Amino acid sequence: MKPETKKDIRSLSLEDLRLFFTENHDQAFRGNQVYQWLWQKGIHNFEGMTNLSKSTRSLLETHFVINHIDIDQQQKSNDGTIKNAVKLHDNLVVESVLIPTATRTTACVSSQVGCSLDCKFCATAKIKRMRNLNADEIYDQVVAMDQQSRLYFDRPLSNIVFMGMGEPLMNYKNLINAIDKITQSEGLGMSPSRITVSTSGIPKMMMKMADDQVRFGLAVSLHSARQELRQQLMPFAEKFPLNDLVDAIKYWHEKTAKPVTYEYVVWKGINDGDEDINALVDFCKISPCKVNLIEYNPIGDDQFLQADKDRIQAYESALEAERITVTVRRSRGKDIDAACGQLANKAEGE
Ligand code: SAH
Questions:
Q1: Owning domain of residue 247
Q2: What is the rounded average pLDDT of the residues 118-125?
C-alpha cells in the first residue's frame, strides 16, 4: 500500500482493531494489545510494540501509519506557565499551555486549528478555522503535558480545561472521543470531574452534551448578560441569542444536576456599568452557577482595556450579596502570550 493511502491507525476504535485482526486471521485480543500501545503507553512506531510478532508488526506497517504530534517549541513564563507550540502531521500548529499552582497543574488544551467564531477580544479569532483536531491530536496534547507535569513539577496532571484554541463544541465528536480516552482505564484514567469544557455558548450542542450525560464540567463564556452588548463583543451570538442560551443552561442543569461556570471579562467602559452588573446578577439567578471573573489579556487592540479594580470589586460584591459563588481568575503566562485569548501561533512566524 502506498504511504499516502495508508490509514492512521489511531482513527480506529478498539472494536475496529479487534475486527482488523480477525479479518486478517489472527486473534481479536491482538487489537487490545495494539490499543494499549497506542493509548496507554503512547508508542508512536510499530517496532516498539514488543509483544507482537515480527510478522504482525509488518502487517500493521503495510496497512497503517501512526500520526502524532510533535512539541515544536516550548516557552516558559516567569510564573512557571509553559506554552507549547504543537506541530501536527500536516505542519499546522496549535498551542497548549501547562499552568502550575501550589496544588494543581492544569493543562489548557486546543480543539481546533484557529476558530470559526469571531469574538472581538480573542487573538485566536483572528486566524480563520483551518481544521478540527482529531481525537488523537487532542489526546496527545494531554499526554505531552502530563509528561511535562511529571518532569517539571514532579506530579501528574491534575486538571484539564478546554480553553485553548478553537470552539470545542464545534468539534464535538472528536472532543468526546478524546475525553473518553483521557478518562478510561486503558487511557490516562483521569476523573471526568477534573475536566472542564469551555464553550462560547452553542445552545444546541450544550443540550446534546446534557442528553449524552457527560460527566465533565461546563463553562460558558458569557462576558455580558445583555444581548445587544454580547452580540457586539461576540457577533456570532446574534444567531445564538441569550434566550436560547438560557434554555440550554436550564436543560443542562435538569439533566446533569451540575452547575455551570460563567467566564466573564470586565472591560473598562464596555461592560463595567451598574446595568451590566445587575443584568449578570439576574442572569445568575436563572440556574445554579458560579462566576469566574477573568483578567483581560491584551491582544494589541486599544478598544479593550482591563476594567478598574473597583468595578471588578463591584461585580464581586453584587454577586456575593446574592450568594452567587464568584472567583477572580488572575492571568497566567501573560509574558509569553500564553494567557486566555492570546493563543495565536506566534511561534509559527518566529
Ligand atoms: N471557544 C471557547 C474556548 C476557548 S477561549 C470559549 O469561548 O469558551 C477560553 C476563554 O478565554 C473564554 O472564556 C474566552 O472568552 C476567554 N478569552 C478570550 N480572549 C481573551 C482575552 N483576550 N483575555 C481574557 N480572556 C479571553
A1: 70-336
A2: 93
